[in-house]
Every structure is written in structure tokens, then in C-alpha cells.
Amino acid sequence: MTFKHITSRDNSLFKQLKKLADNARERRKNNETLLDGVHLLQAYMEQFGLPKLLVIAEGESTNEVVGLLQELADVPTIMFTTLMFAELSPVATPTGILALVDIPQLPVPEQADFALMLEDIQDPGNLGSMLRSAAAAGVDAVYLSQGCTDAWSPKALRGGQGAQFVVPIVERADLAAISQAFAGQTLATTLDGESLYGLDLSQPTAFVIGNEGAGLSPALVAAASHNVSIPMAGQVESLNAAAATAVCLFERSRQKMAQG
Amino acid sequence: MTFKHITSRDNSLFKQLKKLADNARERRKNNETLLDGVHLLQAYMEQFGLPKLLVIAEGESTNEVVGLLQELADVPTIMFTTLMFAELSPVATPTGILALVDIPQLPVPEQADFALMLEDIQDPGNLGSMLRSAAAAGVDAVYLSQGCTDAWSPKALRGGQGAQFVVPIVERADLAAISQAFAGQTLATTLDGESLYGLDLSQPTAFVIGNEGAGLSPALVAAASHNVSIPMAGQVESLNAAAATAVCLFERSRQKMAQG
């Protein structure tokens, strides 16, 4: 296999991809993002087919990458220097393959039975973990406030491990309006709410989770039908926001399964 | 207040603190680490008293930092340039205060009722989140394999939000031996185990959690009394390791509370 080999950082395609890697506005404007690594690309292709472009690093490729390149021989492929490639990758040890894809928009159900609303989550790893938990727990739709970090950044995609391709995500959502329109209970997670375990979660349920440091805004607490807390037995009184999200979502899963 | 003001990166104290910030071996050798920010320092002081040294950045200090400096007027305090301070801090937006402390060793109960064993966790943020969940769920002891990232690194401390000061942590532990000696059930989390929800978790219980990518080693799976999985309703089949840990630990909490 031979590929177009680009070694100059002045190359216009490199500059464009670097903007996509670094800049949420650029990703939104073009409706494109970069997927890093074989696993994410395969998860994407299972749902949406071929990527628009593949990028590899010069030097050695793993057999996994070589196999994928053979399988995707019809997709335009370019090669960057190792250093240029590393500038596009969100991880310290780059995986050796990046793919340019359109950001997919999965259809959002009109009446979600199980929703997750996230207010102003700052850390892309946390957001990725929350989306991954949502996808695993069977959430129907995730709504992100204007102030949330971008769900399609390379770091959030890495944290999501493919969750972004299976769970519908609505960005820049008006969470108060969505909370009030939700046809079911909306549960705002706070430090002084009702016990999560005392609520019947088998009915249509939306969890509303706040910023890592500040928690939920008063407006969203007020818009919710209940405030809920995870009872804590230990000496530390709060959880990482992504850990708390997982506990809430899977408590609903558990209750639904217990009902049969 | 006036402080010793250090502006040279050649300063021996700066060089020593930089080693502590960057290097697990150095932290272990000296049994010292750096705490970043008012919150962590306060959590430390609640348990262990004063730090050995305070470090602040030149320029403006927040009122929170100024208040703490007044309260801790007897603790030696030095001031570094903003850039030097930033080199010691694990966060992009430094908090403006660092504290040098001895790494505490909390007594480990001889017979833990609720334990967590972590094998080769790589990401310090994940490890911090797991320790925070353990502290919140009332875990008695956390055992870390030789291959785990350092629990006392600035990033792991930041993720733990004070958990390291309340839950006993045993590093470089032989998890297979501890698992076999544990006086209760040891539950290895895998993708094909029994349902977490079908087990009686009210008895003495240890959860064994594996590396983020590779999962648990066969040796630890074999050493456990059960393999357990979190049933997943969605299209994604695994959780972030820290999210899975939270779900497991809080399912035990829930069962214990349900028993009264």
C-alpha cells in the first residue's frame, strides 16, 4: 500500500484536521470530527458505514491497523509524520490511525422512557464516561446544556468508547424546558434529596446531573419533580459526577429487571 | 504577610518539589506528596494536622487562600513565580496553593468487612474516582496491585477529593494472596459473570476490579469466589472501570441498607 505522504505542517489538510481536533466550533461548523483508534472506528462503521478519510502515522503500523487499511482500501488515506500525527491525537500514546467522519445525528424519540440530562459537565473524560454508562444502561436520549463540554471532541469520544454512536445526544439543549416537558418523573441529583433507593424508578424517568464542582443550578433543581441523593455510608459525602451518574442509571436498570 | 520568594528554577527546594510532583518513586522514597488546593488541604488537616510547607504563586491570591495562610501562619510558606508554581500543579488552572505533607498510613483492619481490590488501574483520574467511591460507600480497605498508578500522585489526589485521607490504602499488594485470605466472598468483575443483583452482598464482600482496557488477569479471576457482571440493557457492553466500581460498591450499600 502506498499513501499520500505529508510532511509539512503548512499542508492545508493538516491544518484543517488540526482545527477539527482542537476546536469544538470548527467541529460544529463542519459537522465533522476525528475518531482515534481502530476500536472507535469499528464502532462507528457498524452504525454508519465508511469514514471520509483515514490518517496514519509514518513508521510502523500495528497489524490491527494494517488489517483495517486493507479492508478499507477504497477510503482515501494519507500519512503524516509521527509528530504531526501526535498533534491530532488526544492520547499520549497515539493509536496509529485516525478517521475523519461526519458527526452522526441519531433520531431522538419523541417520548423518551429513560433520559439523562447533563448540566455544564466540564471534563470530556467524565462526559464520555457518562455517555458510555447511558448507552450501557439503555438510556433513550441524552440532553446536554449549552455549557457542557463537546460530546464529539476526541477526548469525549475516547471516553465514550462508541457510546456516541448508539445513544441519541441533543447538544445545547434548554434543560429546564425539556425537564418540564418530560412525560415522567425528573430526578435532580443533589446532596440533600430523597434516597435514590426509595423511589419507584420503573416509570418513565429522567436523571438530571450537575456540574462536577458546582452541582445543579437552582433553576434545574426547581424544574425537577424530585430531588434525589445516593445514600452514603462512608466519610466522604459526594461522588465523582460520572460515578454518581452510573449509580443512578443502573439503579433504574436494576429496578426494571427486578420487575421482570 | 511576607514570604520567601523564589524565582529561580535552580533553587534546590523547587527542584525537590518538582521531583515529588512528577515522580512516584520520589514520593515513595520520601513518603511525601503535594496537595493542590484549599479543599484537599483542609480534608488532610481534618485528619492529620498541619502540613510541613505551603507553596503559593506570586501575583494575586484568592480570599480563600489568604484566609488559609492567615490560619496557618506558623507553617513555613514560600512563594514561586506563576510559571514555576504551574509546573508543580496537576491542573490547567492552578488553585494557587500547594502543601507538602507526609503520606499518611491509615491502619488497615485485620478483618475487613468490605474491601476493594484494584488491578493495574492506569489512569490517575479513574483511580481517584474509585477511591472516592470507596470512601463514600464505606469500604474498609482498598488494595492496589503493583501495576496500579500511584494513589498519592497529584492527579489521583485531585480525583479522590480527600478519599485518600479516610480509607486505608495498601499499595503494591499481592491481590491473589489477599483475595484467597479474605474472610468473605471475593467478587471478580468480568463481562460474563453472574448478575451483580442476584448475589447476597450483605455478607463480608470484596470486589476485584481490573485494568481499564484488559480487565482482570486470569489469576485474579481464578482466585475469586465468584465472577460477577453488571447486567446491561443497552447496546454498549461495558462501563468505564470507575463507573463499574461505583455501581458495584453502591449495590452493596443498597442491600445493606435494605436489610436495615
Automatic annotation (TrEMBL), chains A, B:
GO process terms (BP): methylation; RNA processing
UniProt keyword annotations, A-Z: Methyltransferase, Transferase
Domain tRNA/rRNA methyltransferase SpoU type: 114-250
Residue ranges of every copy of the MRM3-like substrate binding domain listed in the record: 11-99
Any one GO molecular function term: RNA binding
Matches recorded under InterPro entries: Alpha/beta_knot_MTases, MRM3-like_sub_bind, Ribosomal_eL30-like_sf, rRNA_Methyltransferase, SpoU_MeTrfase, tRNA_m1G_MTases_N
Family: Belongs to the class IV-like SAM-binding methyltransferase superfamily. RNA methyltransferase TrmH family.
Protein name: RNA methyltransferase, TrmH family
Species whose genome carries this gene: Methylobacillus rhizosphaerae
